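Justification of computing resources. Each target in the renewal requires a structure prediction run like the one illustrated here; the chain below, 247 residues long, is used simply to show the kind of job we budget for.
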Amino acid sequence: MPTVLVHGVPETPEVWSALRAELARHDIVTPQLPGFGCPRPDGFGATKEEYLAWLVEELESIAADGPIDLVGHDWGGGFVIRVVSTRPDLVRSWVTDAAALGDIDFEWHDFAKIWQTPDEGEQFFEQQLATPLEERATVFEMFGLPRDRALALAGWADEVMAGCILDLYRSAVDVGREWGPGFAQIPKPGMVIIPTEDAFLSRQGAEKGAAKAGATVTVLEGIGHWWMLQDPAAGARALEAFWATVA
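Resulting structure tokens:
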């Protein structure tokens, strides 16, 4: 059956490469969000609802080959909570590390608040893209990534991606209140991953979201936001242990 891994921000599907190498499965699909390492289609507004509609269309096509085990990280994890809230028929199981977005009291981290502010967000990315790659990579190293993977992650951003990030976050100022109420008693088996060192997503919010949705919780001790890059073996073990429980 297909396994679909959905990346987040500021990323491309390459964020899953190390994890894929640790998984026993080979039926893995990694959709590429429009504008993230690829062109932004003409007329595409890059709002959360447009990305959601795009992902649902992708999943409908993939599901033709069998029930999907859906996994999402960061914004990909946010899209997962909305997909399973509105289209649970598309999945056999689901995993997210962004269940906090399903908490109606969700509050964005400080970087997101900058990106959601006109002019400030544009200045942020203008400065970032003008900064040498090696300096940008040190920021990701601070979040626990090995040097080589920090360099890769830092190198994915470009002007197209920056514009999509700004539009996406500005469409999602109230995402908890908009998407949170539907994230409840999801009828398909789910797991919420909580990395203990995640600097961007609240553990309390994730636990609340998991409880409301009826999902199990797996805590990754000593690992940060980019768990699939920092310790892909631990991430693979968590996923495979969960999949083994799904009928």
